Prior knowledge:
Layout: H1 7-13, H2 18-41, H3 48-65, H4 69-72, H5 77-97, H6 101-107, H7 110-121, H8 124-133, H9 136-150, H10 153-161, H11 163-185, H12 199-219, H13 226-229, H14 239-270
Helix pairs in contact: 2-3, 2-6, 3-5, 5-11, 5-14, 9-11, 9-12, 10-11, 12-14
Amino acid sequence: MLMFSNPESLLQSWSLPMGLTSVLVSAAAIYFRGWLHLRSAFPKLIPVSRLAAFLGGLLALWVALGSPLGMLHHDVLSAHMVQHLLSMTIAAPLLLFGAPVLPALHGLPPVILRRIINPVLCRPLIHRLGHVLSHPVICLLAPSLALIAWHIPAPFELGMHSARWHAVQQASFFITGIMLWWPVVQPWPSLARCPRWFIPAYLFLATVPCDALSAFLSFYDQVVYPCYRTAPAFFGRPPLADQQFAGALMWVCVTFIYMVPAVVITMQTLSPSGERQALPEIQPGFTPPENAAGSGVL
């Protein structure tokens, strides 16, 4: 376990994670290639704002997992909390808001679509699994369980002392973050599984486990996790003060981040012209009609 007492020692020890960076750059290239292809045929299909959202989501994911922040989580609980917030509440909704399916279908090489993607997506088991995992109740419970389970001291310590388990922890945060935001953003080709007016209540329920964990970390008078008890005072903040800051950070950020889409959706629901269009079915190899990507998002 690495120990850093100042930003200079952290930056000197950090090196660019080539594997993660290559994966994210490849995802950006595939999306951009597909976006350009669609843009040339249908200029209004996927606006620049969606491109910016998708690239911003990839950047947030890289900052969470590949930047020096990823090394600092061993010493500073607030850095771990920033990682969690970036992957689950920033990267996940931005990637979904980017309407990633259409650009990916048009950005991937046809041979990959024909030999790998299409055979996998055509399996009935995949359809059934997707139907179950996209149910709002599952989408609400999965991130809540992941959040609480990984912040129990024993699993938390396991993730801190094992690179493999830490990767599992971060992957579970990101994947359940995608699940959490799926009913909210509803990217194509998903279908609404609950009334739109229920989404603000859904987002409120999603804040409850975050608020409970935040309150516990903020008001508990001892350092919860043994790995931080002997950590150096980073930026002059001792471990207990850092734990309290991490709890407050999660409390404030989750509240305001979840509030924004809740307010937007409420305004759309109450507006007479707020009904959303449905995307037509589009199969790989077919060109979608203009404005098709306009639905399935906030």
